[in-house]
Amino acid sequence: MPRVSSPHLLAGLLATMAVAHAAVPGKFDATIPRSLPGSPRAWTYGSGVAELALAAGVAHPRTRRVAALATAAFFVGVFPANVKMAADARRASPAVRAVTLGRLPLQVPLVLWARKVSRGA
Predict the structure, then answer these.
(1) What keywords tag this UniProt record (predicted)?
(2) Mean pLDDT across the stretch 51-80?
(3) Which segments of the chain does DSSP mark as H helices, in order?
(4) Domain boundaries in the chain?
């Protein structure tokens, strides 16, 4: 069974999210803050490409340390999208509100996980 600090598990999560950004971009477009320039779709695809690059970097031992640190920064950087998702769900069902609010504190363990992977590289 893989350890939670496993760099390959982190790379797999990043790669899965990259594929999701490409497969169902509309779900991600809705989370892009309106204050960002350009189209939400461009940001959706851009973040998916970034996740794929981070996944590759985390998977490879020679680039793991730097890529894992960049992943931690990426997780911090996408936090506003999660805040927007929670704010947009104010009038949604209680279940949707609970999920969107529950995602917010999950960024902390993701950041810590990426930092742990960088220290173990």
Answers:
(1) Signal
(2) 97
(3) 7-23, 25-29, 40-59, 64-77, 79-88, 94-103, 107-120
(4) 7-120
